[in-house]
Amino acid sequence: MPHKIAVYPGTFDPITLGHLSVIKRAKKIFDEVIVAVADSGSKKPMFDLDIRVSMAEATLKEIEGVKVMPFYSLLVNFCQEQQVSTIIRGLRAVSDFEYELQIGYANASMDKNIDTVYLMPSLEHAFISSTVVRDIVRHNGDASHLVPREILKYLEN
Hints:
By secondary structure, this protein is α/β, with parallel strands linked by helices. The chain has one domain (about 5-155): 3-Layer(aba) Sandwich (Rossmann fold), CATH 3.40.50. Helix content is about 40%, strand content about 20%. It has helices at about 15-30, 50-60, 75-80, 95-110, 130-140, 150-155; strands at about 5-10, 30-40, 65-70, 85-90, 115-120. The strands form two sheets. The chain has a three-stranded parallel beta sheet with strand order 1-2-3, with helices on both faces. A two-stranded parallel ribbon has the order 4-5. The longest helix is centred in the middle third of the chain and has 17 residues, at about 95-110. The mean pLDDT is about 95.
């Protein structure tokens, strides 16, 4: 039986319990999940790429078959380099679907072998986004219930 690998891309600025929920669900389907941390310079992330990779590695170190890698190119190019044809995308709400569907179609238009699988986080984590976490942190609020414990030290800084 072939080894099933998927790429779960994102900015992960920071990684949240919602992301973790999607990763754990993906791991039930795939033998290996590559968490691909996007450079995303145009988004002006709160944390630089190296820190975002470190946060993801700290969070995911106990989950067998999950590895974290930075990427600087188009996602399709990254998938081709890694010889992976399945992309995982998380959907929190109906409002995410339209955007994610467009991205999935765009990726498929660049490489017909690329499939996108959409997974929802658990219901208790469905409202969490990195944007919500950053907004809470910027206003000196407590976001500890929204992120893995490994991330708290990064948020305190």
